[in-house]
């Protein structure tokens, strides 16, 4: 059974599927516009390659053996995969058109989406994109209740209600003023900075909820001295020493050369967050939305 990929081609698999569906070699041959003898020869090639019968020839047709049922299942998967590939390549050839509505969380919009959408537009210039920012929890609600094609959010409870695919990995770092006691640490754990004054985002932000949950798990409460509405403002508040903050790595790196701040890695499992793309049903996506989904989820 070695090297089946070299012995069984796509045409042979397609003809075998036709025979199994029609339960008759002659009808399968007629459907596929080929001589029955050629179909029989292809079936014989499969049986020779695997060393086991895949069909039983009977007076009024054929029956599929247990081995044949296994081959049939995989053959259908292979053919379906090739058909999906053809559809996706056709989109590149003809150019998907239309409008795609996306709702994303702050982390995805600030860190990853600008470059990814710019690259997508170079390939699909005729697709218009509407992008709205919401918290991760609201991203779920918008995809469920409104006409948004795709949502991008953290892997939070509720994501499992939707079809979803991995998008990016988001690493959290501690941002402190350069003169702070933790500024020269190679890495920190939450216990190292739990008693500090924080600059934070709003209560609904996924990052705020995450930090509060981690503090509560340690029997503590975060001392949030000031709350702001954006990651840009968050970094600037640390710059003027109003507190420390936990920020996504890519955001912090934008400011380390322009603000009086340092980034320190956080050595905690919770400091590595998965971003996912969610959607209702893949088969119901427009060609434009499907193209964008494929583009985003193949770039990490």
TrEMBL record:
Pfam families hit by this protein: HTH_1 (PF00126), LysR_substrate (PF03466)
Superkingdom field: Bacteria
PROSITE patterns, alphabetized: HTH_LYSR
Residue ranges of every copy of the HTH lysR-type domain listed in the record: 8-65
Alphabetical list of InterPro entries matching this protein: HTH-type_LysR_regulators, LysR_HTH_N, LysR_subst-bd
Record key words, sorted: DNA-binding, Transcription, Transcription regulation
Name of this protein: LysR family transcriptional regulator
């Amino acid at each position: 059974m070695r090297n089946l990929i070299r012995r069984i081609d796509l045409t042979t698999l397609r003809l075998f599927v036709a025979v199994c569906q029609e339960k008759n070699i002659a009808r399968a041959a007629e459907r596929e516009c080929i001589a029955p003898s050629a179909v029989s020869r292809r079936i014989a090639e499969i049986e020779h390659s695997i060393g086991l019968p895949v069909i039983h020839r009977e007076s009024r047709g054929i029956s599929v053996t247990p081995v044949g049922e296994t081959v049939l299942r995989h053959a259908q998967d292979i053919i379906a995969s090739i058909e999906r590939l053809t559809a996706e390549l056709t989109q590149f050839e003809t150019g998907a058109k239309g409008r795609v509505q996306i709702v994303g969380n702050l982390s995805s919009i600030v860190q990853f989406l600008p470059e990814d959408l710019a690259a997508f537009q170079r390939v699909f210039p005729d697709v218009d994109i509407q992008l709205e920012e919401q918290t991760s929890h609201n991203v779920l609600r918008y995809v469920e209740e409104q006409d948004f094609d795709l949502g991008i959010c953290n892997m939070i409870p509720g994501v499992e209600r939707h079809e979803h695919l991995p998008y990016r990995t988001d690493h959290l770092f501690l941002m402190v003023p350069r003169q702070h006691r933790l500024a020269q640490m190679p890495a920190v754990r939450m216990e190292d900075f739990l008693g500090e004054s924080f600059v934070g985002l709003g209560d609904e932000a996924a990052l705020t909820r995450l930090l509060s949950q981690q503090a509560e798990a340690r029997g503590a409460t975060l001392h949030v001295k000031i709350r702001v509405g954006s990651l840009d403002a968050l970094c600037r508040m640390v710059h003027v020493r109003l507190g420390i903050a936990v920020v996504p790595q890519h955001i912090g790196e934008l400011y380390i050369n322009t603000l009086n701040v340092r980034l320190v890695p956080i050595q905690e499992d919770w400091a590595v967050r998965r971003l996912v793309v969610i959607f209702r049903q893949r088969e119901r996506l427009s060609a434009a939305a499907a193209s964008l989904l494929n583009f985003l989820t193949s770039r990490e």
